[in-house]
């Protein structure tokens, strides 16, 4: 093991700069303050940041406070020095008005920390939904050697002998409550049963999705994404992650070497096979833009739609995180896809080997949980990218279209894959909650529900609210899902086949702002279109009237950050990043 010559370490500019001995002494004395010796700091050892996303405010990632000890030991073992520091908290379920507001804020903060402090490499502690993209995006911008460590999912939840999955059980429980099968106390108990341990959501929600994709992208040690948080293996991989980052610094293996177009294409294919979250296209678009890779939204359909669903996890399937790990996790899925020639095998990963080398021969250990490619759960399980006269782009997750839904909406012999009906429009989640059970809306099984004002500007950060339940009276009649369309997001734990992430959003005066309750709308999956059935002239008139009254109204900002972000955030089809930030690339090298 040879040390990198000192002049290759960027931390040398702080601790070993003969041209500026005044500042060097100042930098040194303060970092000496907590027990690192002068000798160590000036020895040319790589200095490794541990970007800590866990805290009491972020329970999903809190176990990283424990894992960081093992990361440190790995870093020390390999000859590095560890400096742990906090990342702005993002708690998906606890942050008001929405955690969507915070991904770009955590990104910004982490860019400043990685750029402005004496760090040669960084361990990114990922987990809860947006912590993973926020960390990867910042590492992409700064482009110092970086490796992600997932905190891992919670253990499986159980209730009366059945698996209860995080998030998914909420959507089920609220239907049961609406149908009068459950009281409030029972509802809370049922939901709590799904969260039996430390870790993130045990379903294939956005957390499991984004950590699986971080591994598929090559940013995490192979086989590590799916290890449940409390398992011994999780501690062990924390140690190996710490060891590995020190060598990555010595090898100068950077995010730009790993996050290539091939890596992103692999991630899209893997996302279909795992039944990944509809938040993935937003986060991958953002990451691609920060590393400088061109990844059009349409790629999700061209590369991803035909891929079958292999992973049988809730919400698309039956099982949970522990089962996913035991069945082989990400490598087993990738090996199935590789055998079909669907993976670009030469993409490099953090361990210095290619994804092909890492995953070749990985076995499925339980075919109930991970299906072999020739016996999938569903064929053609990837996303459709929709367009039409109400928006330029939106995503539909086809793997969660239920048989009931297909029968009711997509099986008209004269018009297969299409459906026409009247719209009922809600302006934001509060409006929806207030009115959904109001009989005067006249919602029938023919109705399409619309949610607007829930995009990156309208509900700052974009709310996970498009999966709307039908009114109680329809649920008691057995109608469990209506077609839902909107400019908000949807939790990855939801099994609703909504058309969501519609861009541009109503608050940017996109077409949804022109829609009125009672308009007839046609959704056509074969053509990939959603259109309101009114003339272009009428639409133009409505647009002129909307603009004359100052555009689509949305609530005022409640915090300075809401105002700042609203002024610069882009739409979801291009990653909802801070527009302009993408011009800062590979800044550690400049
Ligand atoms: Fe944090 Fe689901 S709420 S992972
Ligand atoms: Mg979520």
Provide an overview of this structure.
A hairpin with a 2-residue loop joins β5 (157-159) and β6. The chain has helices spanning 12-15, 21-32, 38-41, 64-77, 103-116, 131-142, 168-178, 184-192, 206-217, 232-251, 255-258, 261-274, 280-291, 299-304, 321-326, 329-339, 355-359, 403-409, 429-435, 472-476, 536-548, 560-568, and strands at residues 47-52, 81-86, 121-126, 146-150, 157-159, 162-164, 383-388, 393-397, 418-427, 448-452, 484-486, 499-503, 520-524, 529-532. It has 22 helices and 14 strands. Strands 11-10-9-13-14-7-8-12 form an eight-stranded mixed sheet. The chain has a four-stranded parallel sheet with strand order 2-1-3-4, with helices on both faces. Strands 5-6 form a two-stranded antiparallel sheet. Helix content is 36%, strand content 12%. The model is unreliable at 1-7 (pLDDT under 50). It starts with 11 loop residues before the first helix and ends in a 22-residue tail after the last helix. By secondary structure, it is an alpha/beta fold. It has a domain at 383-549: 3-Layer(bba) Sandwich (Glucose Oxidase, domain 1). α6 (131-142) runs parallel beside α13 (280-291) and α12 (261-274) packs across α16. GO terms for molecular function: dihydroxy-acid dehydratase activity; iron-sulfur cluster binding; metal ion binding. Keywords: Iron, Iron-sulfur, Lyase, Metal-binding. InterPro entries: Dihydro-acid_dehy_C, DiOHA_6PGluconate_deHydtase_CS, ILV_EDD_C, ILV_EDD_N, IlvD/EDD_N, Sugar_Degrad_Dehydratases.
